[in-house]
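USER:
Make up one protein:

ASSISTANT:
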Amino acid sequence: MRAQAGDHVVVESRSDHQHRKQGEVIEVRGEDGAPPYVVRWEDGHEGLTYPGPDAHIVPAPRES
């Protein structure tokens, strides 16, 4: 998994009782875009995140 600041992390729901979770990557702490990431979640909480197999990155639009 690789990300850049501005990309979004999406964590899919594991059950019917949980909701999909999404947040913006505000800092990449790993080498070459690898985790961990500092993420600002939809509820405003920020935290260090090591995305699991239920997560994927949605790249932010980049200027050409």
About this structure: The longest strand covers residues 21-28. The radius of gyration is 12 Å. The chain has no helices and five strands.
